[in-house]
Amino acid sequence: MELLVAVMVGVMVAASVHLMLARNVLRFIFGLILISNAANLTIFVSGRLTAESPPLIPEGADAPVGQVANALPQALVLTAIVIGFGLFAFALTLVYRTYQTLGTLNSDEMRLAEPRTEDRS
């Protein structure tokens, strides 16, 4: 099972790098989100995929009884999902505002601060 997830993470990273190398800024954002999801999946799998019971501590005990799932990767991934969603919303707002201002999503045509080389005297 972990081999299948490792292959899936590899495919997700390859697809995200392909998207991030495109000239379109919106594709870059989607690649960034995809690589974030691949990293989340990697962290989640680091806790091992087992069919153990949830990490609940019975009343009156100091530690869980028996084998339990690791809760730390789950908590880290949950936090990363929330942060990733905030990053996506902020970046999507920036891309939308950039498109309104410049009229393009092509990164080569976004030259507001620097003129083209043939325009210089």
Q: What would your notes on this structure say?
A:
Helix 1 (2-20) runs antiparallel to helix 2 (25-46) and helix 2 packs antiparallel against helix 3 (71-102). With 121 residues, this protein is mainly alpha-helical. The chain is elongated and about 75 Å long. Helix content is 60%, strand content 0%. The N and C termini lie far apart (63 Å). The chain has helices at 2-20, 25-46, 71-102. The chain contains three helices and no strands. The model has no long low-confidence stretch (mean pLDDT 87).
The end-to-end span amounts to 63 Å
- How would you characterize the largest beta sheet? none
- Tertiary shape: elongated
Structural class: mainly alpha
Q: Tell me how many strands there are.
A: 0
Low-confidence stretches: none
What percent of residues adopt helix (DSSP H or I)? 55-70%
What's the total helix number? 3
Give the H and E element order.
HHH
Q: Whole-number average pLDDT?
A: 87
What is the radius of gyration?
A: 21 Å
The portion of residues forming beta strands comes to under 5%
